Give the backbone structure.
Amino acid sequence: MSMKVSGSRVLLAGCALLVALGGCGGPTAHAAPATPGPATPSAPAGTPSPSISPTPSPTPSPSASAKPKPQPSVTLRKPVPAGADVPKAPAPPPVADGVPLQGLGTFSTAAGGTDVVGAGTTLVKYRVELEDGIVWGAEPAWTAASFTSTVDRVLSAPNGWTRSAAAPITDAAQKLTNASWSFQRVSGSDFSVRIRLASPNTVDRLCGSAGMDTQGVYSCRYGQTIMINLRRWLRGAPGFAVPIVEYRTNVINHEVGHFLGFDHMLCPGAGRPAPVMVTQTIDLGGCVPNSSPFAADGTFITGPWAAS
């Protein structure tokens, strides 16, 4: 009897323990899952999860070249006073130097045109022409295109007249106030000035009709026309000891300077660069030859004014 009681007690104690652990003889209870941490909210059904866009690269600052180019505010519309840079003493008659003397007296215009060159406020539209019918003989022939390439080069040079945009010119004597120029070559009838290369006889005839004696040698200007004498273009000027390329640069810049409104200048001092408006082929006055309006540092090369 005592053995049964003891066994029953053991059984009851075991069941009590099992009840404490989850029950005894009843339905098996599964352990509750561990309490989860805070749940990440899920997107509503049917809503796509947002994608992660890559961080955009910083937009680069626009470079100086991307800035819009300043446009000229006015186109030059004025005739140039008639003039020719002729020495007081008549030049000796030209010798036979192989230069073609005569053409047909008509002109061909260089085709096409250019964009505006420079940022000056006054636009100069120029047209380039070559006399027809020049018989070149042994002389290398110039064409409207080859003459044009030289004129374009001179008028777009960094120290040419376009430099005035960075260094505007003010001169009361010349009636200039903050003056600056840009250039554009055109081939139509809307031009400010035309630059012609012509035989000596044709230059004499056309310049003579405007009252100037170019003596078979010199160039001239009148109205909207600049006449470049073929003799000087091919041979340069006696006593003006510069390469022929420099002579051509000089005559274009000098004659265009007159068209822009400049009178002649005098040498500012012995050994200094001559202003381009000095009649350097006649008298340098102690200066050294120079073919550009501006120095390499952007300074306008000037001197005392002289009547043209």
Notes: Confidence is low (pLDDT under 50) at residues 1-53, 56-64.
